[in-house]
Amino acid sequence: MPRLSGFTVHEHAEHQLSWVAHGQLVVEAGGTWLLPPSQAVWIPAGTPHALRATRPTQLYCLYLWPADCPVPWTRTTVVAADPMLRQVILYLARPDLPDDAAQRARALLADVLRPDPAATKDVPMPFDGQARDLADAIVRDPGDQRGLREWAAALHVSEKTLRRAFVAQTGMTFTDWRTQVRLRAALPLLADRLPVASVAARVGYRSVNGFINAFRRHFGRTPGSYAALLGA
User: Fold this and answer.
1) Quick one: which of 34, 75, 124, 178 could link to 170 by a disulfide (CB 3.0–4.6 Å)?
2) For the whole model, what pTM was predicted?
3) Which of 33-37, 42-46, 124-128 has the lowest mean pLDDT?
4) DSSP β-bridge partners for residue 22
5) 3-class secondary-structure state, position 58
6) Ramachandran angles phi, psi of 49, nearest 5°
7) How confident is the model at residue 121 (pLDDT cuts 50, 70, 90)?
8) Nearest to residue 59, comparing CAs of 28, 83, 35, 77?
9) Domains with residue ranges and CATH for the chain
């Protein structure tokens, strides 16, 4: 998927499991999630949803008929894309896979799908004007150190207007919103085994301890323990 491409709101008669091998995906399905390669999302049959790539992205989607599906979930659920789940998805994506082999592989999903404790719903995106332009820029480069004043000057709008737009369109202050985006941007970097200090710098934290504390407050675990959870 090229950057900013995607699928508008639609639904399927089948359950859908989506995972990005690389890149990043905005998923809207009763909530909004920023999906990195360290996570996959389970979208139950009949759930209206939309997908949009924030950067060049390789997307895998599995579709399972409810009558034959071993997974009982009825709500959109973000799961940890650990090495086992990734291999099952890649195996099921093989075009030459015999039907009986695919059936056996699908039966494994009930054992390897588990909700990701680092997944919290909603990094809402502003939907209009300069606030959306700013949000898209930060999602592309969460390490950008410019504050709201600098962004307001760059976008030729007042700082007060941007601040109010973020609260009105996302329900969050700009600072809180950027913190969530930065922390989610850290997830695929941790899954790729980058050192915590390098991850902190790349997502915009000048202090490693500040990054660790923010990650723990938001996800309930340290960056190191999250990487260990994924087998990184």
Assistant:
1) 124
2) 0.62
3) 33-37
4) 58
5) strand
6) -155, 160
7) low
8) 35
9) 6-112 (2.60.120.280), 129-229 (1.10.10.60)
